[in-house]
Each structure stands twice: as structure tokens, then as C-alpha cells.
Amino acid sequence: MPWFRKTENLWGNCSPSLSIEKGFLPKWKYIYNAEQDSYVCPEGQTLHYATTDRQGYRHYKSDSEKCMNCPLLAKCTKSKAITRHVWEGAKEQVRLNRLSNEGKWIYRMRKEKIERSFADSKELHGLRYCRLRGLQNVSEQALLTAACQNMKKIALHLSRGS
Q1: Cβ contacts of 92 within 8 Å, gap of 6 or more
Q2: Distance between CA 97 and CA 112 in Å, rounded?
Q3: CA angle, 10 as apex, 58 and 59 as ends, to 5°?
């Protein structure tokens, strides 16, 4: 999540997405140990770092010999491995921001501010369908629509001020 910078106190906001496979333990049941860069399963076994793939996911694998007699073996992971993205720390911070009181307030305000602007663009400014074809032409139409909306806001703001 490149837009999240802790030093600038920016708030990212993302929709919750949990992809839990039916019959398996969810990832949050495994505890991440940042100091040792490993995960600990609910039964107390350590999953050590193995490799990082090209998409930026770090793979943590368990010792198959230790897991043979585990009572949760059938509910464990499919491949006896857990993945963690290199930006997982930032993703977790964004999730905590979203669940805080201020984050919930910001998410509620989004309906009134952002979504309304898109609705106005579609209904009042013809952005529902593009009149021209091609990326350049569609970009120009979107920018002109945004410029029109901004001019309307400025005019409304100036009329209220006088």
C-alpha cells in the first residue's frame, strides 16, 4: 500500500475483505512474531520463513514431521504454509484505522462526500456514458467533468460568502 505513510499521518481506507476457505483455520488464528519473522499456529508450532514470490508474498512453512500428530491437521492450511505480503504491516494499520471511531466516522462521511460527487458526475454531467472512444478522449471528458464540478463548487462558495 504505497499511499500509506506513517510519518504524514495519512488515513487509508479499504473495504474489509476476508477470503477464508471453508473448513480451514483463518489466517488471524496464526500469530505473527515480527522479531523472529515467523508465525505460530494455534497448537504452538512455529512456521518459519521460506521464500518470497514475485507478487511480494512471503511464504511461511511448517515442519511436516511435527505436524503429523497435530489434532488440527485437517483444519490447518492446504499447503501447510501461510502467506504474508511485504506491506502487511501497513495493511494492518489501515484496518485498525478503519475500525477506530474516527475511521468509522470517515467511512460514513464518504457516502455524503465522495459517492455523491460520482453520482452527480453520472447524472448531471453525462459521465455515465463516454461520448468518445480511446483512453485520451475519455480522460479529457472525465477531467472536463471534474473541472465543471469544481467551478460549480467555487461559484456556490463565493455566492454564500457575499
Answers
A1: none
A2: 20
A3: 5
CA dihedral sign, ordered 55, 66, 19, 31: negative
Other beta carbons within 10 angstroms of residue 101's beta carbon come to: 7
- DSSP codes of every residue in 24-66: S--GGGSEEETTTTEEE-TTS-EEEEEEE-TTSEEEEE--HHH
57: left (phi over 0), alpha (psi -120 to 50) or beta: beta
pLDDT tens digits, 28-67: 788 888 888 888 888 888 888 999 999 989 999 888 777 7
DSSP 68: T
Cβ neighbours of 98 (radius 10 Å): 18
How far apart CA 52 and CA 58 sit, in angstroms, is 4
Amino acid making up residue 28: W
DSSP 23: T
Nearest Cα neighbor of 149 from 123, 112, 131 is: 123
Please give the model's pTM, rounded to 2 decimal places: 0.53
Residue 34, φ and ψ in degrees, nearest 5? -70, -35
